[in-house]
Amino acid sequence: MGIVWRGMTQDELDAAYNQAAYAPNMEDVIARFAARSEMVRRRLGAPMRYAYGSGKNDGLDVYGPASSDGTGAINVFIHGGAWRGGEAKNYAFPAELFTNAGAYFVPIDFDAVQDHDGDLMPMVDQVRRAIAWLGANAHLFGGDPERVHLLAHSSGAHLAGVVLTTNWQNDFGLPRDFIKSALLCSGMYDMAPVRLSARSAYVSFTDESEHALSAIRHLEQIVTPLTIAHGANETPEFQRHSRDFAAALQARSHPAELVVGEGLNHFEILETLADPDGVLGRAALRQMDPAA
What is the pLDDT of residues 85-137, one digit of tens each? Predict the structure, then answer.
């Protein structure tokens, strides 16, 4: 079989974009996400639920501290799921790390790629609108619109990377540096190899969409400081995406730090977002309050 991408055959490339091939405990960890999220809701109570648009999935959950004076940082979370699944309610498990710090944790819902015949751009638009809604409506729940931070994982980190190229001032009337920091974990930032992989069976790529959906090709539009993370036991392609994206940003003297979760696969690393001593938990607290 011939080489299709960076020394990999088609089968090898397909495996490098198939998390189950490198994370045999995938289903168990995903089940823990949901179970731990339910336990968090039992302790914190149900989140405040808001609609950021009129679509059936245009909603977000707000988990906040017991009291707020309008200065609480807003930490927006964009979940993964290979663009095909996932719900905000199953990603509440990190919420207490933020509420204990006097901040808000906001996982958002959005459509799946199959809802749009394989087109990812409507999902990007939803994430943009959700974040913009928070900037305009933070007063409804007591958050600080000048302290918005982005957190994202897997295909959610891909969407977040694209969203970071947004000109918030032109498109939404918000400050250009509206998003103060971003922690992107285990994402994809160049769609060329993804287009060549088995994921093209359910994602419809064109030359134009491949370019638009590749954050690494639009570095000049990114103004937000980034922390880019991956697990040391992830697929080789997911590790490479993070390394290459961080290196490309650093080559432009853009604030970008690469963080590696030793001994962790694609799903296990996300669990560390709930732990103040975990690789992602430490990074999230540091980006929210650098002076702490």
Answer: 999 999 999 999 999 999 999 999 999 999 999 999 999 999 999 999 999 99
Residue 179: which residues within 8 A CB-CB, separation 6 or more? 131, 148, 149, 150, 164, 168, 224
pLDDT at 292 over 60: no
Q: Which two tokens stand for residue 92?
A: 């509440």
Angle in degrees, 0-180, between the axes of helices 121-137 and 155-163, rounded to the nearest 10: 70
Which CATH fold topology does 3-288 show?
Answer: Rossmann fold (3.40.50)
* Residue 110 CB neighbour total at 10 angstroms: 28
Reported as a single tens digit per residue, the pLDDT across 148-162 is 999 999 999 999 999
Q: Which residues contact 49 (CB under 8 A, 6 or more apart)?
A: 59, 60, 61, 62
What is the CB neighbour count within 10 angstroms for residue 36? 18
Q: Please tell me whether residue 47 adopts helix, strand or coil conformation.
A: coil
| Cβ atoms of 158 and 210 closer than 8 Å | no
Q: What is the C-alpha R_g of the chain? A: 18
**What is the average pLDDT value for the chain, to the nearest integer?**
97
Find, among 148, 155, 154, 117, the residue nearest to 132 by Cα.
148
Distance of CA 28 to the CA centre of its chain: 21
CA 50/CA 188 separation, integer angstroms: 29
Two tokens at 213?
């959906």
What are residue 125's phi and psi, to 5 degrees? -60, -40
Read off the amino acid at residue 287. Answer: Q
The CA-atom distances, in angstroms, between 247 and each of 170, 216, 243 are: 28, 10, 6
Per-domain boundaries in the chain: 3-288
